[in-house]
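Lab channel / #folding
Pinned by the channel admin:
"Please post every new chain as: sequence first, then the structure tokens as a reply. Keep commentary short and put observations after the output so the thread stays searchable."

First post following the new format, from NK:
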Amino acid sequence: MDIVIVAGRILWSLVFLGSGLGHLTQTDAMAGYAGSKGIPNPRLAVQATGAFLIVSALMVVFGVYADLAFLLQAVYLLAVAFTMHDFWKASDAGTKAMEMTQFNKNVSLAGGALALFALFSIGGGVFLDFTLTDSLFDWTP
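Reply from TO:
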């Protein structure tokens, strides 16, 4: 079963790695969109979140405080859902549908990240192998 967890960590991280690389290679376009949503210093915000996405994805893949990475990813996803994908403000039907899809994706991924945070934190992660560190958080149900 350990190999399934490792495969899941890798697959989970692909979306964050891809998004992080997109933030760093398409900074100008993304900064324009972030600026239109009222994000201060949009270029810096896009670059910083791109770096965060890559680092947190690598933390998950290699099991370096993966519980912390999942928790931070959940916070990030919820923040982005409510600030960048505010579908309730859109007047155009196409824009509203696109923003709602992105909002729902982020909220759903945040739920998954919270569940994985809990899984990786149980007993300090004693049930999980193939990680470089133990869990940062430790709770026993």
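NK: The helical segments are 2-25, 27-36, 42-62, 66-84, 93-121.
TO: also worth noting, The chain has a mean pLDDT of 91.
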